[in-house]
Design a protein that fits this description.
The complex is a heterodimer. Helix content of chain A is about 50%, strand content about 5%. Chain A contains twelve helices and four strands; from the N terminus they run H-E-H-E-H-E-H-H-E-H-H-H-H-H-H-H. Helix content of chain B is about 30%, strand content about 30%. Classes of the chains: A mainly alpha, B alpha/beta. Chains A and B meet through helix 1 of A and helix 5 and strand 10 of B.
Chain lengths: ~290, ~290
């Protein structure tokens, strides 16, 4: 059987329909939980900008708090782009520099002379931002709105209890390429949609540089492997790079633990998450009920 | 005779039985105001869908006074409504009750509980074991009740049509499986094409009431419809938004439709049964049924 090269397509999206589904999702989650406000960490990148635009549609802009949390080495342009989003939305904002929280901790553990490994430093920064966001969510009486997308979740390209921590995940089922379309439809500034995605954990870092592939190739591969349940052989026959397919498949499998609750050693007749199963919100669980 | 039907394309609140009893009563009043003779509510309209271990907390007997009270709140109207049923011997079913003036006149327990992909129903409720019709009097004669996934098994609506149903009522809580993509559009189209086919092949009218709203990450898509026995769409609700979908069937048309297209009458039921018996035996590795050559 012959296969056309490039027969593995990018996942498609109807941006307008997607936006209305996500906005309804956010409103329903807030109503069920008894909240009226959202907090989002705004990096200046397309993911958090998109989450913020969606959040601003779900609640009034004054009920959205966008927290900018730069580190000493964060790019100047990140702050500029984050402020662009804030100005566009007219939402509330707060700037909290995480440098004096992150550096003393690492210095305490490693000694002042030793430079922590990049990955440790990145994880500490991501988790410090989580701590700030959750603190602000209490002060602002809000839920923390997640900013993780499907591509990074499937690849495990995120920090557990860091950027992956949130009360709800509006863009968690959108691949990066789909997310860009949704961002454009929402009116996220074109500069933000177009710039190379970066976790901005150290100067010059880009997602695509670190992952070793473009988001477009990653999304084609993930869409084929995950959504269409194609075998690796079929992906390759459809024109995807064999090494990339193998690497992505390995990475998805190796990061499964990041997408699940930790296993509980089962000892009783009813174990949370195993045979004690409830919706997140039920009668009497709504705040103030 | 004109027969008016109202479909309450509503969004029940998960686990909030009291709220939903009140909500359905309000929608029922609207249906009555529209002159409907039959009001149809979605699957699990009294409880919400993703109940998991809340099932025993919201379950009620089919003759529960609260269910009867919803129906009794308007006089002379047939009401089809989904709820979690607990039987006398404590079996829990995803059921649809048909009531009139507070009296239970029909009941169907969901036979096909989807337990695959995003669905986990078979874990929390048990499957029904009857496929029947309900006698409701003129002008409809008999109604066939079913719940959502039941309609993905054509034997069920076709049995009800053979059993005399002139109207198939399907109550649903259908979550959108891929909203925002062509796959999602195809899934909705699949539902609608299947209904068109049942109307056509069964020469029966269809009333399909699907809920809307969100539960956890799920979005329910609505798109409720009333079809005439020739497959004509009499009324159609919007996707995703709440709506009272109202339409009228002309029941006098059925007689000539079934003369012109006598599919039900021509069905070779005995032949179907013989072949089914053979297939069942073969699948089970049993000897062929009596008198059947190998």
């Amino acid at each position: 059987m012959s296969q056309r090269a490039g027969a593995a397509p990018l996942p498609e999206i109807d941006a307008e329909q997607t936006i209305s589904v996500i906005v309804a999702f956010l409103r329903s989650q807030l109503a069920q939980a008894g909240f009226e406000r959202l907090v989002v960490g705004l990096s200046g990148g397309v993911d958090s900008a998109t989450a913020a635009f969606l959040a601003a549609r779900a609640v009034e802009p004054e009920r959205l708090l966008a927290v900018r949390m730069p580190f000493r080495s964060s790019a100047e342009s990140s702050e500029t782009d984050a402020m662009r989003v804030v100005t566009e939305l007219g939402c509330q904002t707060q700037r909290i520099d995480i440098t004096p929280m992150v550096e003393p901790m690492l210095a305490l553990i490693d000694g002042p002379e030793e430079e922590a490994l990049k990955v440790r430093r990145g994880n500490v920064m991501a988790r410090q931002r989580m701590i700030v966001l959750y603190d602000r969510s209490v002060a602002f009486d809000a839920l923390v709105c997640g900013t993780s997308n499907k591509t990074e979740a499937l690849l495990g390209y995120g920090t557990l209890h860091g950027d992956m921590a949130a009360a709800l995940a509006p863009i968690g089922d959108l691949y990066k390429s789909q997310l860009r379309e949704v961002a454009t439809a929402l009116g996220v500034p074109a500069e933000i949609v177009a710039k190379p995605p970066s976790a901005d954990l150290w100067p010059g870092q880009t997602d695509e540089g670190e992952l070793g592939a473009t988001y477009e190739d990653l999304d084609r591969t993930l869409f084929a492997l995950v959504d269409r349940r194609w075998s690796a052989e079929r992906c390759v026959a459809a024109g995807l790079d064999a090494d990339l397919v193998a690497w992505v498949a390995r990475r998805v499998a190796a990061s499964e633990f990041k997408r699940q609750q930790p296993p509980i050693a089962k000892l009783s007749l009813r174990t949370p998450g195993v045979d004690h199963l409830y919706p997140r919100r039920r009668p009497g669980s709504r705040r103030g009920s | 005779m004109e027969y008016r039907i109202a479909l309450a394309q509503m969004s029940p609140r998960l686990g909030e039985l009291d709220d939903n009893l009140e909500l359905t009563t309000r929608w029922l009043r609207r249906a009555a105001d529209e002159g409907a003779r039959l009001a149809v509510f979605p699957e699990l309209a009294l409880t919400g869908y993703l109940l998991q271990d809340l099932v025993p907390e919201v379950a009620m007997a089919a003759d529960d006074a609260r269910l009867a009270a919803v129906s009794r709140s308007v006089a002379g109207l047939l009401v089809a409504i989904g709820f979690v049923e607990e039987t006398d011997d404590h079996r829990y079913a995803n059921s649809v009750a048909l009531l009139s003036d507070g009296e239970l006149i029909g009941l169907h327990r969901k036979v096909y509980l989807p337990t695959y992909g995003l669905f986990d129903e078979g874990r929390f409720t048990r499957s029904g074991d009857r496929i029947r019709t309900v006698t409701v009097g003129e002008p409809l004669g008999q109604i066939g009740l079913s719940v959502c996934e039941d309609f993905w098994h054509p034997s069920l609506p076709m049995l009800q049509a053979q059993d005399g149903a002139t109207l198939l009522v399907n109550v649903a809580a259908g979550p959108a499986r891929a909203p925002g993509s062509a796959a999602g559009t195809r899934a909705v189209a699949g539902w609608h094409e299947m209904q068109n086919t049942y109307a056509l092949l069964g020469t029966t009218a269809i009333a399909f009431c699907n809920r809307v709203g969100n539960e956890e990450g799920l979005t329910f898509w609505g798109g409720s419809r009333i079809l005439a026995p020739d497959g004509t769409v009499v009324a159609e609700g919007p996707l995703y938004d709440e709506a009272l979908v109202v339409g009228s069937l002309e029941t006098d048309d059925l007689r000539m439709q079934r003369y012109g297209l006598p599919l039900l009458a021509d069905e070779r039921l005995e032949l179907v049964r013989r072949e089914l018996d053979r297939i069942i035996a073969e699948r089970a590795g049993l000897p062929a049924p009596d008198g059947d050559p190998p």
